[in-house]
Specification:
alpha/beta, Ribosomal Protein L4, Chain: A, 2 domains, 7 helices
Length: 206
């Protein structure tokens, strides 16, 4: 089992914690990690683009001129695609971009992402990550003490003081231990995790 250092909010090392290899020591599957990221981004797409076909454009119910004898090419409607104001050929319609990943694949991807953060030494465990008040300066000081800029801050529960203190800091996002996802883990340079959250992650995913 891997051991990582535990720091206090002043950035001083106060001990170590042993990580469960079933969560933080798996074989990294880059393919599943890639699939998980693509899946999350695809599921966020609205797919609301839409254009009208010749059947949906208003007007054009009357034949513009008779079939023969005018010298013009035959036309059936002024809303055909070649006319100004006509419909669009193979017009785009609202669609669902999402695709499904199996539960085991999702779990394997998440564990791979967590393992990669530990292997890259981008997994920082903090003891006593709590604030008595909502103050952005408190979180800025903690991140500066840990020498971290762009970070995903993970707490064991919905700690209002920590979440609101980090809300206005650029490049910082907060999440609870049971809501972390592969995209956020990889998007932010470092994971700053409370000691309690480490225990929760290991309980949920071990």
């Amino acid at each position: 089992m891997a051991n990582v250092s535990v720091y206090n909010i002043e950035g001083k090392e106060v001990g170590t914690i042993e990580l469960n290899d079933a969560v933080f020591g798996v074989e990294v599957n880059e393919h599943l990690v890639h699939m998980a990221v693509v899946s999350q981004l695809a599921n966020n797409r609205q797919g609301t683009q839409s254009a009208k076909t010749r059947a949906e454009v208003r007007g054009g119910g009357r034949k513009p001129w008779k079939q023969k004898g005018t010298g013009h090419a035959r036309q059936g409607s002024i809303r055909a695609p070649q006319w100004k104001g006509g419909g669009v050929v193979f017009a785009p319609k609202p669609r669902d971009y999402s695709f499904k990943m199996n539960k085991k694949e999702k779990r394997a991807a998440l564990l791979s992402a967590l393992t990669s953060r530990v292997e890259d030494k981008k997994f920082i465990v903090v003891e006593g990550l709590t604030f008595n008040e909502i103050k952005t300066k408190n979180m800025v000081n903690v991140l500066n003490n840990l020498k971290v800029a762009k970070a995903l801050v993970v707490t064991a529960d919905d700690d209002k003081n920590v979440i609101l203190s980090a809300r206005n800091i650029q490049g910082v996002k907060t999440a609870t231990a049971d809501t972390i996802n592969v995209y956020d883990i990889l998007k932010y340079d470092t994971m700053v995790v409370s000691k309690e959250a480490v225990g929760t992650i290991q309980e949920v995913y071990a």
